[in-house]
Amino acid sequence: MSQSRRVFLLSGLSGAAATTAILAMRGYANEAKQSVINTAQAKQNQLAEKIIAAFSQLPGKKGLKFWIPADAGFGEWSAMLNPDTVLFCASAFKGFVLAEFLRFVEETLKPGDKNSIANQLNQQLSRELVLDESVFSPGAPVFNPPNLSGKVTVQTVLEAMISRSDNTATDMALKQVGADRVRQFIAEIGLQNTRIPTSTRQFFGYIIGYPEWQTITWAKLIELLQKDLYEPKPILNDTITMAASPHDFVSFYSRALQGKFFKYPETLNKFRAILSLADAVALSMPLGVNGFGKGGSIDFASEHVLTFAGGMWVSKRWVYFSMMINWTDKEAGTVAQVQQPFIETANKIFTSVRDSFGC
């Protein structure tokens, strides 16, 4: 029988010799695989150290958490700096308001209705809300009080709240859903370090020291602010504030962006779509990723804040993050002076994460 030498040698390898050869090849493959894993793990550990070192250069009190859950055969990864520290979060709290508002809308949707869930959702978001002095609040670049008034759709309100951090839009959303309902949601999902105001107007009324801050009018607030007729109080306080820890933000976004708090995928799609509009996403994130989140900032008296929290999708893996800094005049300048270093640091961090986990 004619047979090539290669075929003969292959077919002639049998019994103990064949088993030994197969085990040897498997052992080599396992060693090579483990070597790759060890190398990748070492690089990821170095990445965490690099991120913490870069963020530590920013001024003031700092809190940071980046987390990638174990997924699709890949291991968990994290980078943390004071993750449980409670800091003033500024407008980043509006992500909680958005989530609970959409959950509130979900209660009106009926799966058996002749209209699809998507159509029903769009109908609810097309409802009109009143924009007038009862909801005006400072820091509203979209609704621009007192120059704009009338009626605006719910979707416009939610998008203004997230995309430009409009405080009037935020108070309109809080008025509809109820701040206590948002607080109940926050408590139910186990966020022990998170606090939100009943309205941004009440918050401003309190920190400027107005005795009747719960009922302060738009006219009175603007009068006091324009004339500097106030005694400032700490923005992080036990009465009315905007506060969270990096861990709370990551805990929230790691579930919310996966739809854990919503009944329908259509609601999740709307949640992600609105969060993708945040200006901090475009400012801080590199090309090649999908970003979702909410930032925040404030300059008040001698206190200053910059925050950004959310999630990033990069090549089949989710990255959840929170970056927070609180500082005073003694430590650095205003938000305008610190914002660019903050953005540049965030961009370098996101780029490093993209390059490390993007394949």
Q: What's the N-to-C terminus distance?
A: 50 Å
Fraction of residues in β-strands: 15-25%
Q: How many E strands?
A: 9
Main beta sheet, described? Answer: 5 strands, antiparallel
Low-confidence stretches: 1-13
What report would you give on this structure?
The chain is an alpha+beta fold and 359 residues long. 48% of the residues lie in helices and 17% in strands. The protein is built from 13 helices and nine strands. The protein has helices at residues 5-12, 15-56, 94-106, 117-125, 154-163, 167-177, 179-188, 200-207, 218-226, 246-256, 265-275, 279-284, 335-357, and strands at 61-68, 77-81, 87-88, 128-131, 150-153, 243-244, 290-300, 303-314, 317-328. A five-stranded antiparallel β-sheet has the order 2-1-9-8-7, sandwiched between helices. A two-stranded antiparallel sheet has the order 3-6. Strands 4-5 form a two-stranded antiparallel sheet. Helix 3 (94-106) packs parallel to helix 6 and helix 5 crosses helix 6. It starts with a helix and ends with a helix.
Summary of the model, kept short:
This protein has helices at 5-12, 15-56, 94-106, 117-125, 154-163, 167-177, 179-188, 200-207, 218-226, 246-256, 265-275, 279-284, 335-357; strands at residues 61-68, 77-81, 87-88, 128-131, 150-153, 243-244, 290-300, 303-314, 317-328. The chain is α+β, with helices and mostly antiparallel strands.
Present the secondary structure layout.
Layout lengths: L4 H8 L2 H42 L4 E8 L8 E5 L5 E2 L5 H13 L10 H9 L2 E4 L18 E4 H10 L3 H11 L1 H10 L11 H8 L10 H9 L16 E2 L1 H11 L8 H11 L3 H6 L5 E11 L2 E12 L2 E12 L6 H23 L2
Antiparallel strand pairs: 1-2, 1-9, 3-6, 4-5, 7-8, 8-9
Helix pairs in contact: 2-13, 3-6, 3-7, 3-11, 5-6
